[in-house]
Amino acid sequence: MKAELEVPPPPEGFEPVAKGPFLTWNGPIFQRPTAPPDIELATFILPRHTNGAHMLHGGMLSAFLDVAMGSAVRLCLPRRTATVHMSIDFMRAGRAGEWLFGRAKMTHATKDIAFAEASGWVGGREVGRATGVFKLRGPS
Question: Which pLDDT score is estimated for 140?
Fold first, then answer.
């Protein structure tokens, strides 16, 4: 396994987000304040985020976009969420040492289901696009 890189300071305007044990290991994740329904996240791609070809692992990109969409829903509706469906298109590669950025927004919500979409990019190249369906949990 390649040695881990040191995570540089986040890009201007981004601040660390604590999201539990999974993202503590797979992060760090940073968020830039935005207005609902949009949210912007970033993470620095580390060697542990890559596959055997040393490119951004599809599972890491999926998790990152899932977090972005869930965060966008929670930004709009202060309720806990659970992903019930996610579809993703992988478009290009990212590599360790690059920043992965994501933008997501909630597109629609009913009484107990919300819909969102997200895209991720590295160095100005779109690397993936996702849509998701989220079960809304807890009080409305």
Answer: 67
